[in-house]
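Re: your question from the hallway

Yes, I did run it. Sequences:
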Amino acid sequence: MSQLQLRLKLGKLESLTENFTHYCAGCEHGTLTRLIAAAMDNLGIREKTVMIDSVGCSVLACNYFNCDHIVSAHGRAPAVAAGLKRVHPELMVFTVQGDGDAVSIGLLELLYAAKRATPITVFLVNNAIYGMTGGQMAPTTLEGQVTTTTPFGRDVHLTGSEMDASKLLATIDGAAYVKRASLAVQEISSSKGKVYTIKNLLDAKKAVENAFKVQALGGFAFVELLSTCSINWKMPILEAKRFVNEAMVKKYPLGVYRDAFGVEKQ
Amino acid sequence: MGGNRLYLKGNEALAYGALEAGLNAYFAYPITPSSEIPETLAKEFGSKKYPDFKFFLQAASELEAINMVIGAAAGGVRAMTATSSPGFSLKQEGLSYAACNELPFLIVDICRSGPGLGNLGPEQSDYFQATKGGGHGNYRLLVLAPATVQEMAAFPRIAFDLAFKYRNPVLILGDAFTGQLKEDVDFPQLSPEKYDTSSWATTGAAGRRPHIINSLELDYQVHFKHIERIYEKYRRAQENEVRFEEYRTEDAETVLVAFGIASRIAKGAVNKLRSKGIKVGLFRPITLWPFPTTQIKKLASEGRRFLDIELSTGQMYEDVKLAAGDGVTVDFLGKWGGVVPSEAEITSKLKRLEVVAQ
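Structure:
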């Protein structure tokens, strides 16, 4: 195994099935799937983990994670997760939700799960668009961004400005861990010319593991992962990655927004 | 509580009935006239009398509450929520998912006047929503309709038994009257039933294949089969779970059909008319779904006529007419808006229909 494979824990994972994913080329959902499964393997929690699948591109995740699943209604995953966790506190319960699911139709469920310090883990994939339904405006769509329902660009005077989920959750006292990371590989200049660094992915990997550790300590953990949707953005894959690392991070700065248990320092 | 007689409101009796039936988790959202159910349970949460009652939480919305029930039910425990009509509309999303996911739990609707906010008085106008599916897609709830505080206490146990037997949500459909009415109620000494959920509950895939609770099926043929199998369960329920009460129908020429609180008023009218020698009886559906179609059909085939009495503009009326069949007289007396028919109004209706001499 190469150094890269070891660091990202590539190869067969017990927490993954052998199914092919339906994710589009260039989409980071697949990356996140691996990072979560690797964390489940590393922490040895697969047999006591239940994933709550949400509605959006993550809805078919029950085919990919080798653990118990409940597929929820649109936006309701944190409520379903809370219901299960409260009657089975020994389980590790997590959701993977898109920005439309968690920040639009399911904002109440997300906020109250955090407010009550529900010991669950929420992974939010923020790709600034409704992916599964074909590229409509999400609450996270950037000002001026063209989507199928904002064909002339998002007009924030009409729609309100972009919803910053991590910043919002950072104001909630029940949230023990709030972190925003990027799943897009980053282009950097080096003596060999343009190369890509996986620094973002390693950072995201750590955040994913921390999010499970925080749940094990009894806290609510939230990790927002900036991602691309090159299909619906109608952008070549590498240009989409650049859009995340240059445009999206300006509106959605990466970093730790809350860390009540100090897991980042460990 | 077991072995005791108490004087309770219907809603309080229902809460204790659920506890006696081994309730594990309750997810609340307040709404009049059902709020005594969560209030009673909140008071008992943590009491040593009910060690199985592990969790109580007031949710932030009706939707959050029903989805928490879904999560808990998927974990294989006895979960429950209660609401009233405007809230019951909001529950429909969760009920559709739960029926497709074959999740057993108890939901209670203490029906008030609608549509919209209506008022806090009794109605039975959630009958359509309760018995025809209510949410999107092909599914049914099993629906029990209590008429007394005693039945409010007894039905949660029957509801949990049915829910786990058929792996489907079960609804207790009460009304503002049965919820608020105070009566004596006996609690028999019974221990909770045991249900085996090991083949499907999401409790962690340790030493077994993952359990996946999922209503999404993109293969049309597979989804066709899934719904066909669910309807096979419903057919079994129609064969085995119909409950009803017949009162003085043996020689009745006219049969009043009513459920819940309306059936008690109808029963009073039957007693008064019988004392004058008029041959009327009462047929009371206890399960609104499965509906006692066969029993009504039988009464119709024996030449009886029917008067359907409801606190609505006529919802069960459609099922009674369908069961009675063509050529059978089925009349209707309805009150709505929180207004309840009196025994005298039932008698005058029968006079107008010339069942009773003017």
